[in-house]
Amino acid sequence: MVKRNQAKPDRAALRERYLTLRGASKDFAGMTLRAGRFAAARQTCAIDFAMLARMPDWEFADALDRARFAEIIGLVAARDHLARALDGATLRKLAEHFGSDLIDRVLDDADGALETVVALPSFAIADLRQVGSDLMMAAQTDWQEARTICELAWDYYRREHSEA
After folding, report:
1. C-alpha atoms less than 13 angstroms from C-alpha of 67 in its C-beta half-sphere
2. What is the C-alpha to C-alpha distance for residues 137 and 82, in angstroms, rounded to an integer?
3. CA atoms of 55 and 57, how far apart (whole Å)
4. Within 10 Å of residue 99's Cβ, how many Cβ atoms?
5. pLDDT tens column, 125-151
6. Burial annotation 127-144 (CB, 10 A radius, 16+ → b, else e)
7. How far is it, in rounded angstroms, from Cα 163 to Cα 132?
8. Angle 36-77-115 from CA coordinates, rounded to 5°
9. Closest CA to 97 of 66, 129, 121
10. 158: helix, coil or strand?
11. Helix (H) or strand (E) segment spanning residue 101
12. What is the 3 state secondary structure string of 121-156?
């Protein structure tokens, strides 16, 4: 299992998260789905900074493409399966969708240290997206493997969007 050096949000970032959730709790406009549910569930109780610190960074990303992020999470979760089942046609299909740079990074970066127990029906994009969505939900309940996979995918997603 990869241990990520996950920096804890600083005080200013936690304050910004708190104000975002508090301000949006009336209409939930402009929030990601999870952040909106988080705010809605806590309308009747106080939001504390410990709760905010545990929330993943991607929940506060302004322009998060959740479908793309879920696909990347699924790809990261499938990395070990993909490395064992190296198939030219499958790799070409995935490279057409994700780009060969991302495929190379995913296959090379973890270097065998990320061992997943995620069941993967196939390498179809829809299946990767579904696995990724399931892992996003699991990461929010602090399942450590899901959090690790999602944090690694978040690094790839941010890199992909900073290069665009």
Report:
1. 3
2. 23
3. 7
4. 13
5. 999 999 999 998 888 776 788 888 898
6. ebbbbbbbbbebbbeeee
7. 22
8. 125
9. 129
10. helix
11. helix 100-109
12. CCCCHHHHHHHHHHHHHHHCCCCHHHHHHHHHHHHH
Backbone angles phi, psi at 56, to 5 degrees: -65, 150
Find tokens 């190296």 and name the residue: 86
Spatial separation of the C-alpha atoms in residues 128 and 67, rounded to whole Å? 10
Tokens representing 19 are 């104000």
> Pick from 4, 3, 18: which is nearest to 50 by CA?
18
Cα separation of 142 and 26, whole Å?
Answer: 27
pLDDT of the chain, 164 residues: tens digit per residue: 444 445 556 667 766 766 666 655 445 455 555 665 666 565 555 566 677 677 777 777 777 888 999 999 999 998 888 877 767 888 889 999 999 899 888 888 765 556 666 777 788 999 999 999 999 888 877 678 888 889 899 999 989 888 65
- Give the DSSP letter of residue 119: -
Both tokens of residue 138?
């699991």
Is the separation of the CB atoms in 58 and 6 below 8 Å? Answer: no
**Six-digit token string for 69:** 């992020």
